[in-house]
Amino acid sequence: MGKRGCEVPLFVFNHLYTPLPMIRPLTSLRLLFALMVFASHCNIISDRFDIPLLTEGYVGVSFFFVLSGFIIAYSYDERFASGSVTKREFWTARVARIYPLHLLMLMVAASLGTYSLSNGLGQWLAHFIPNAVLCQAYVPSADYYFSFNSPSWSLCCEQLFYLAFPLLASLFRRPRHLTIAFILSAIAVVVGMHFTPEPWAKDVWYVNPIARFPDFLLGMWIYQLASREQNTSLTRSQATWQECGAVTLFVLFYTLSVHVPQVYRYSCYYWLPIALVIYIFSLQRGWLSQFLSCRLLVWGGEVSFGFYLIHHMLFRLYVEAQHHLQFSLSPYIAILALLLLTLLLSGVSYRYFEQPANKFVKRLDFLRDIK
Prior knowledge:
Layout: H1 24-40, H2 52-55, H3 59-82, H4 87-111, H5 121-132, H6 142-145, H7 153-171, H8 175-194, H9 201-207, H10 213-227, H11 236-255, H12 262-265, H13 271-283, H14 287-292, H15 295-302, H16 304-325, H17 331-364
């Protein structure tokens, strides 16, 4: 699986490059899982959306973390091995990808007063500064990691993954080393979850970047498996059945999740179905992969980073507007309108802010002293 030397940024891809064939279905899946996260927050609008079928959609975050490991390894593993990319170039590209939109949304949240100044300027800064440098998720309190634009907590995890990847790429060059590392970390996670009191589960196992590191390792491991896939004897129909099987397994896990303790559902419960979905669809051999490779769905995946960071704030603004202006609107119409508005703003953000900002930060090359 050659990369032809082009960078594939996390969450979305630079419009100057058409996503490579293996990546297109994964790009589209990014949109579908972002929609699941969107659905998990619909209960902000109305209690009638507070049902397991929708609220379980936070699994989309786990998918993003695992996919991060796959995409970053796909884009950079061989390039680090060959010396065609430096740590400086890698980290500059990662900062250029996530920080511009994150900081913009943080400033919007701050200007709209989504975090109160009632406790004084000092307390406000104590929350704002960790948000600005993406460290808020290390503080085990929802008052911190969900402050301002709450979805940005997951970027703390991504930042840790980025910082560690150059080291991981050299340590885990051999598949068995990465396999051992993932197995050991997975055992530690499962055992730790078993002994974690339920009130601490979200703080320790869902939000904490260190606890989410096995998700990233899993993605890297899937890439190593897929990169060695040589079996081309499957027909299109047989490959389609594989894809349907992967989707069916994920749906089965999803529907049975109500019978599984919450602490495991925060990550490890979904490792198997997510890994299988990413692995099978990365091979792009069946009709489902062909469908997911259509330009409209790929575009949705390209703008999904903005979609993810924007949607929650729009929900909050809608609820506040409804309260202050005393208007009533069908929650179904409201959700549809917010979905369309989020997609529109995501597309505008991607075209007119994210891409120009990405290029601008790369030109600055502010990490030039790092070798």
